[in-house]
Amino acid sequence: MKFYLLAAYLIASITVQSQSIEGTWRVSHAQTIDSSALSVEVDTRSTDQYYISPAFITYHKLSGLLEVSKNKVISHSFVNEPESVKLEKKRGNSTFKANGLRVSVDNHSPDSLVLRVKKEPNDFMILYPFQNSKGEIQLKDFENSHWVTSSNYDFFNGWTLHFLDSGQVNVVIQREHFGTTSFATYKVHKSNQYHCLQITDRHNMLDDFIFYLKNRDGDSLSFIIDHQNMDHPTESQVVLTKTEGITNSQQQQIYTELIGKWNFEMFSSNITTYIFDSLIDLNYSIDLRLDSTFRLTNQAEYIESGSVSSYQQNLTGKWQLSTTADFITLISEDNPLLQKHLTIYELRDQELTIDLSYSFDEYSTVQSRMKMKKDPNNR
Asked: Residue 196's CB: how many other CB atoms inside 10 A?
């Protein structure tokens, strides 16, 4: 299976049917059809009737653009530099090669382009026509700025993107039942045909998100993005809207409110992903001190497979409040590379609600929203 290599180079070699495919095409996804999954099954309504079950199809996430002109093809993988090759005519077909791979046009219409991998006839790449974006973006549009997302697909809703001037971006995601903070890098890719924003999440298996600019209206950017759900890759609409950050005095005020010892009170949402059977006792506290040091205590007792297990964790080090005051970073004293991120869901009336990956043994964590109360005797 060479799709990941193919994704890196995007298009290696294409034999084009006599019909013109000139234009800009966006790679949506790849798919593999497992012909061995074809089987004959009995129709339960009648033992005399048979039917062929559908072949098993596996979808693969891909990104990229293909610009096809009369004599040239430019492929953009957003991994390597754009690759330009000469488009040649051969026996009524248009052909070009790159990196030793060959792909042929299996089907073509104004709405889609299906490419078949020659050496792997059950593998296909699906592309859709891409219209030139209305407006443009560049790196300076995002540097030291804050943006929020809205989308017709819930996964891309509730993101707050804090772009830095170093090519890094803090991604804070708020959900109804859980939120998270991760760190990513960002780039802007553009040509005469397209503008897109690439965000690479460094904390989630280096997942890449390519946002293709569709329209710009001042500080509101409309993008299209492909995502892969359980059934089939789907195109979504995502809007990024620029927002104002908080002032230094507002950030300092929240920092001051956080100083003190916070004790576990309850899980504020129903968590159904616990590996253990039931939780017997939990002593979880975070002491955030004025000198930017912290002490975290985690003592848990729970029943797992009918047996009582216990876990204890003590962590000390430095703590930082983000300049946007929506997450806390705990930096371990023993291992500064070991950092824990607490997403602030709510802070009011001596109560703090955070989203975190909660550890209940040495190897296991569970995503949780935790409500904590400030210790009146330790502030």
From this structure: 24
**Mean pLDDT, rounded, of the chain:** 82
Query: Is the pLDDT confidence value at 18 over 90?
Result: no
27 with 129: CB under 8 angstroms? Answer: no
Q: How many residues comprise the chain?
A: 379
- From the list 8, 30, 61, the residue with the least C-alpha distance to 228 is 61
Residue ranges in the chain assigned as alpha helix (H)? 3-9, 248-258
Residues 173 and 345 sit within 8 Å (Cβ to Cβ): no
- What's the CA gap between 134 and 156, in Å, rounded? 22
Percent of the chain whose pLDDT exceeds 90 = 40
167 in Cβ contact with 187 (< 8 Å): yes
CB 212 within 8 A of CB 26: yes
Identify the three-state secondary structure at position 356.
Answer: strand
Q: Which residues pair with 84 in a beta bridge?
A: 74
pLDDT tens track for 264-278: 998 876 555 556 667
Q: Which has the minimum average pLDDT: 46-50, 91-95, 257-261, 366-370?
A: 46-50
Tell me the DSSP string of 247-299.
-HHHHHHHHHHH-EEEEEEEESS-----SSSEEEEEEEEEEE-TTSEEEEEEE
Q: Decide: 114 and 25 in contact? Cβ < 8 Å.
A: no
CA 110 from centroid of its chain's CA atoms: 30
DSSP state for residue 13 in the 8-state scheme: -
**How many C-beta atoms surround the C-beta of residue 72 within 10 A?**
12
pLDDT tens, position by position, 298-357: 998 878 777 888 889 899 999 999 999 999 999 999 988 888 899 999 999 999 999 998
* Mean pLDDT in residue range 76-80: 85
Q: How far apart are CA 120 and CA 12, in angstroms?
A: 13
Handedness of CA 226, 29, 66, 143 (dihedral sign): positive
DSSP code of 25? E
Sign of CA dihedral 77, 79, 82, 83: negative
Q: Is a pLDDT exceeding 70 seen at residue 10?
A: no
- Rounded to whole angstroms, how far apart are CA atoms 161 and 184? 10
The SS3 assignment for 9 reads helix
